Amino acid sequence: MKILVTGATGYIGGRLVPLLLDKGHQVRVMVRDPGRVAGREWSSKVEVVRGDVEDPASLVGAVSGVDAAYYLVHLMGTGGDFARRDRAAAKNFVAAAGGLGHVIYLGGLLPQAADISDHLSSRAEVGKILREGLPATEFRAGPVIGSGSASFEMVRYLTERLPAMIAPRWIRNEVQPIAVRDILQYLLLALDRGPSGIYNVGTTPLTFKGMMQEFAAVRGLRRVIVPVPVLAPRLAALWVGFVTPISNRLAVPLIEGVTHPVVADTSRTLEDFPEVTPLSYREAVTRALRQTTENAVATRWTNALGDTAAFELTQAEGLIRETRRSHTSAGPEATFRAFASLGGETGWLFWNWAWSLRGLMDQVVGGPGLRRGRRHPTDLEPGDAVDFWRVEKVEPPHLLRLRAEMKVPGRAWLQLEAVPEEGGTQLIQTAIFEPFGLGGQLYWNLLYPIHKVMFSGLVRRIAQRAELQKDS
What is the mean predicted confidence (pLDDT) over 335-345? Predict the structure, then answer.
């Protein structure tokens, strides 16, 4: 089948496209900026068209000639009146796709309450517009749990950073989460069943407090959560925006969406899709944490591609990433040689005295320090020791990832990449830190001013060294 995927740069769409390709479908992705999918592994295997659901004229070519389409666009978090914009966008799509055989939409479960949040009522309205205008299947899901999802990240950060917390009493309300693996399976299987109306999906319900407690249990953390009859939803959302990397613009509708129980009857779904056995919430959390640990997060709630700024600091999936970029006229081979020779007798090129001091401090508390050096001055293999780092991954002449074995309240990596570009190479240096609890966060914040200078100097010196070596 020829399939159109809207929202292909989003959390679900970015994971759905490669699955569709694996099933042998021809895939067309519609994006506002084709450059945003250029770096995806599947970009060369799909047809990319420029289009925007808020621009009716751009939709005609996008929907032409396809057998089915996935409507995975939500404008929540983009600013402005998202409900009005979502309504207009859905109507634009229906008008352009009059001959479409099947549209598949992912919406949200609806609470049994009169005052439904703007977020959930908008998603229901979009589903209604699509169903009334086109042959449609609508899946209604609660919090999606997977590495990099907004709901998972919210629970993760709140639970890991706060040993004790007071919370609004509505955290006792039941919600019905679903593993990202399961919602992707439903979306794929819907193609074979054809237009089928509304399906509620999810695993065994539990309270929002229970979600945090289950997460804490998986992580081996002890947490005290005390519900109190205060903290309005918007105030609670502001707190979420302060403690987690979830922006207030996104946190407010997420929090407002769980102020009532959000549980639905999934019996029709289980009967029509016997191939899917929904993972339990704990299993979904375990899988998400494992993928995060293995740096195997395919998509995340925020823009995974980022921009090409020289410096970028982000927090997602429990990881803090500090990325620096520098252009060098040297080729990838020379650039790789420059960073693959760090440590040992070569040292760390910038502020080597500070690295030595950090190594001495590490030895004092029982860590390896810098005394291990390295096996070979230039050659590296996975598992090699490099001072207080361990080579986790090496792919000459493009990538080196080092895992820290120094004593820190968390886990840390240093990743260096050599990416060919016009006139030379883009050197990308990423320091990654997974803080353990509040202590880990304090450690990062206290040392950040020093790290900022050290890592800025390091990427600059590596680029300079690469240029010196390019003719060697």
Answer: 93
